[in-house]
Amino acid sequence: MMSEIFGCSTADLVQEASYRPADQALYITDLLAKLADEDRTMLVGMIEQLAARMQKS
Fold first, then answer.
1. Per-residue pLDDT tens for 13-26?
2. What is the dihedral of CA 42, 46, 47, 53, to 10 degrees?
3. Which H or E element spans position 9?
4. Which of 10, 23, 33, 54 can bridge 18 by disulfide, Cβ–Cβ 3.0-4.6 Å?
5. By residue range, what is the domain housing residue 34?
């Protein structure tokens, strides 16, 4: 019912709050899709650096 009110799927409603990597990846994909190519490339590089640093910890 809530998904009908907001005009989206039920998965879309819970996707942002999900701890599942696949759901989080879809959320990040949606965020990246809204950016210009240059900004998207920069952000992906930043995420790669953060992930590499956190894996060392």
1. 555 667 888 888 88
2. 160
3. none
4. 23
5. 2-56
